[in-house]
Write a structure and sequence with these properties.
It is elongated, with a radius of gyration of 32 Å. The strands form five sheets. The chain has a three-stranded parallel β-sheet with strand order 1-2-3. Strands 4-5-8 form a three-stranded antiparallel β-sheet. A two-stranded antiparallel sheet has the order 6-7. The chain is mainly α. It has a domain at about 380-483: Arc Repressor Mutant, subunit A. It has helices spanning about 20-40, 60-70, 95-105, 115-130, 190-200, 220-230, 260-265, 270-275, 290-300, 315-325, 330-335, 350-360, 370-375, 385-390, 400-415, 420-435, 440-450, 460-465, 470-480; strands at about 5-10, 40-45, 75, 110, 150-155, 160-165, 170-175, 180-185, 205-210, 235-240, 240, 310. The N and C termini lie far apart (about 75 Å). It contains 19 helices and twelve strands. Helix 15 crosses helix 17 (about 440-450), helix 16 (about 420-435) packs across helix 18 and helix 17 crosses helix 19 (about 470-480). Bound molecules: glutamic acid.
């Protein structure tokens, strides 16, 4: 394997969503793999800002923040520069002009003399004659000298192509796919079709990974590589990301939102990376949970699926839970800083860590923390509707409830303070099951609610141990009294 240079080349037209980030991730993984194997590999962040109309302010920062959050670092790019700086296309206009001049000199580019209305008339004519409109059928015989105010067009060399895409396999097109496209617009900015090829050549990009939307333009690119006499990089087309039903492209309602929203919602970047990498890629085994290092080792373009991937947010949620579970307690503690319930504000670190350890396995996102832990930090208010609507507990009448809770209080009170640990509590509660003749599903659920008044809580004996003897007794009393 030779040393790989990949690039991510977003246009600053808004926030980054899953499809875009996945492209960046795959390109980054290839470069990291190359670094590991060859000691060399480069990932470039290039900003393609030549369409000034579509530009959205603040996007570059947003793109950089999104990549950083995911742990995708770049070796060359707008902020830190590199051997081929600048990495923002709007600052490279002189370079494109020079390359355009080369094409003009070689007789492979010409100034477009037509007005939009004239072009429209050609189009209409083609439509009326039921043939595809091709600009090259209207090449001017004596084009004017290009003065920068007219669009500059590529003089294509129409022919059929056969090529291999690293993901899509063998592809072919006829000569109708080749036309004279614009290289430089009348506003002086180059088109994507032209400048990305110049930049990939100058920057020595070996692998171009990009979304499926560009596949129909590829024959044009192949024609231009030849005219510019530059080596063609490996092309890898990544299929679209579809909504879960597989029928439409991912829309905002299906999760095509700003990737940084997921950070706010309590997703871990490593879970997101795992999720994105396995959106249309697998390593050929049943493995679903990958660390970033494992992804770097296992990733190959040849195992990226040709068919569109489906975006399954439930899978992301599941993966997030898996990655949360895999964290050390200290690491998890550092990451949940912004997610504690407000009432935990003045609680000391030791107690918070104890609570966190208890709920770690139950967190699907870090944002679940308040609902799972609030009652450890503040007195809950009894809500007897939770009992009357509970499938098992609604069978109990008030008297039975009082009797069971009073019996619980009595056995808990009997455990010496110094022995109030999960194991002893569990033994005590198991005995209580026998003496009361109740099922765990009833007795334990009732106690759980009476001390927490929360919809979810960890194992009962752990919960009571963490609450402590005094709090447990106080809450049982309050619950009985509130009846
Ligand atoms: N600027 C293009 C985009 O944002 C990049 C396509 C490419 O990677 O070549 O979609």
């Amino acid at each position: 394997m030779t040393s790989i240079r990949t690039r991510f080349a977003p246009s600053p037209t808004g926030f980054m969503h899953v499809g875009g980030v996945r492209t960046a991730l795959f390109a980054w993984l290839l470069a990291q793999q190359s670094k590991k194997i060859n000691g060399e590999g480069t990932f470039i962040l290039r900003i393609e800002d030549t369409d000034k109309v579509r530009e959205v302010e603040g996007s570059i920062q947003q793109i950089e923040n999104s990549l950083k959050w995911l742990g995708i670092s770049w070796d060359e790019g707008v902020d830190q520069g590199g051997p081929d700086a600048p990495y923002k296309q709007s600052e490279r206009l002189a370079i494109y002009k020079e390359w355009a001049q080369r094409l003009i000199d070689a007789g492979r580019a010409y100034a477009d003399p037509y007005t939009p209305a004239e072009l429209e008339a050609f189009r209409e004519q083609a439509k009326a004659e039921k043939r595809p409109f091709l600009y090259r059928n209207h090449r001017p015989e004596n084009p004017p000298t290009w003065d920068g105010t007219q669009p500059l067009r590529f003089k294509s060399d129409p022919k059929p192509y056969q090529w291999t895409d690293a993901v899509m396999g063998n592809l072919s097109t006829g000569e109708d796919a080749i036309d004279d496209f614009i290289l430089i617009k009348s506003d002086g900015y180059p088109t994507y079709n032209f400048c990305h090829i110049v930049d990939d050549a100058i920057m020595g990009v070996t692998h171009v990974l990009r979304s499926q939307e560009f596949i129909s333009s590829t024959p044009k690119f192949l024609n231009l590589y030849e005219a510019l006499e530059v080596e063609r990089p490996t092309l890898a087309t990544l299929p679209f990301v579809m909504a879960i039903d597989g029928k439409k492209k991912l829309g905002k309602r299906d999760g095509a939102k700003d990737i940084l929203e997921y950070a706010k919602e309590g997703y871990l970047p490593e879970a997101m990376a795992n999720f994105l990498a396995t959106l249309g890629w697998n390593d050929g085994t049943e493995q679903e949970v990958f660390t970033v290092q494992e992804l770097i080792d296992a990733f190959t373009l040849s195992r990226v699926q040709k068919s569109p991937a489906r975006f399954d947010e439930q899978r992301l949620l599941w993966l997030n839970g898996q990655h949360i579970r895999a964290l050390s307690l200290d690491d998890l503690y550092a990451r949940v800083e912004d997610f504690w319930p407000v009432v935990a504000k003045n609680t000391d670190e030791a107690h918070k860590k104890q609570v966190l350890a208890l709920v770690q396995d139950r967190l699907k996102t870090l944002a679940d923390l308040p609902i799972l832990t609030e009652y450890f930090f503040t007195e809950p208010s009894p809500d007897w509707e939770m009992v009357s609507t509970n499938k098992q507990l609604k069978k109990l009448n008030q008297e039975e409830i009082v009797t069971l809770l009073a019996a619980t209080k009595a056995v808990i009170a009997d455990i010496p303070e110094s022995d109030f640990v999960a194991e002893n509590i569990q033994d005590t509660l198991n005995q209580l099951l026998e003496t009361t003749g109740q099922k765990p599903g009833i007795l334990f659920s009732l106690i759980r609610l009476a001390v927490s008044w929360a919809p979810f809580s960890p194992a009962l004996h752990d919960t009571l141990a963490t609450l402590g003897k005094d709090t447990t007794l106080r809450r049982l009393t309050e619950s009985i009294e509130s009846l």
